[in-house]
Write a structure and sequence with these properties.
Blueprint lengths: L2 H10 L9 H14 L6 H7 L4 H14 L4 H13 L3 H14 L4 H13 L7 H10 L4 H13 L3 H14 L4 H13 L3 H12 L6 H13 L3 H11 L2 H14 L5 H4 L9
């Protein structure tokens, strides 16, 4: 199965900005004035954060165009682009923020996420290691580094990164899910399943984490429980499509089926 096909299949089954430099602050107002438009108010921005990914992408990209020195707009636009599957554009947007603010940890994390999602994690590792060094007590850089290291075939480094993420955020469902999906790519379903069961038992477990468990159950032949989970979490048509996909692949090793990094999330 190609990387793109695998990513689509897994997705169907369903991761503190630094103060703006003085020179950037000085440039922001003239640029906005020159465009004839002003950035949205805090209230409008907060309202858009509650909308769907497409609406957020349009809004935040526009805000970044109004003021290219606005790091919040750039990071939010990158996040929305990534959620829409536009990974190259997400990486480009995050990179734009880092040109203005090289120490912006949120932009570093988004750049790492985008490169992991596009299957080119190598190009995000430097940014993620920078985020880790800037915020060593934050579990997110460690979790994302685990995904990135695993993708570039550095399994020992990946396990060490995830172990540190769990020290900082015990039983974090996203970290546990990352570890489980990594195990699936090695054909270790017996390792992956208990990790995912532990993950879904946590209060903060996302829909994607629960559906990763459904995928693993279906691929390893426990179709009845997988169907129960899918029917509970997805609309009937989506559940039907995923069940067809699982039945076609049930009983395999799980290596090719789970070899997708769209399922690795960092929070």
């Amino acid at each position: 199965m190609s990387r793109t096909t695998a990513r689509i299949a897994t997705v169907a089954l369903l991761l503190g900005s630094v103060a703006t430099p003085v020179f950037a602050q000085a440039q922001a107002a003239p640029q906005a004035a020159a465009s004839g438009r002003q950035p949205a108010t805090a209230e409008v921005r907060a309202a858009y954060e509650r909308t769907d990914a497409l609406s957020r992408q349009i809004f935040w990209s526009d805000q970044a165009d109004i003021d290219p020195t606005d790091p919040v707009a750039g990071v939010r636009a990158a996040q929305a682009l990534r959620e829409l599957g536009r990974f190259d554009q997400a990486a480009e947007m995050a990179s734009r923020v880092l040109v203005i603010q090289p120490a912006n940890v949120d932009a570093m994390l988004e750049l790492g996420r985008a490169h992991i999602a596009r299957g080119q994690a190598f190009y995000g590792i430097a940014a993620l290691e920078g985020a880790r060094d800037a915020r060593p007590s934050d579990w997110r850089p460690w979790s994302l580094l685990g995904a990135a290291y695993e993708q570039v075939r550095r399994p020992d480094d990946a396990r060490a990164a995830w172990a540190q993420a769990l020290v900082l955020s015990p039983d974090n469902p996203d970290v546990l899910s990352n570890m489980a999906m990594s195990a699936m790519t090695r054909g270790e379903a017996a390792v992956a399943e208990p990790l995912l069961r532990r993950a879904v038992a946590q209060p903060g477990a996302s829909l994607k984490v629960r559906l990763n468990l459904a995928m693993v159950l279906g691929l390893t032949g426990n179709m009845a429980e997988a169907e129960q989970m899918l029917r509970r979490d997805l609309p009937p048509e989506a559940a039907d499509r995923n069940l067809v996909w699982l039945r076609e692949r049930a009983g395999g090793t799980g290596v090719d089926q789970a070899r997708t990094w769209g399922s690795l999330q960092g929070g």
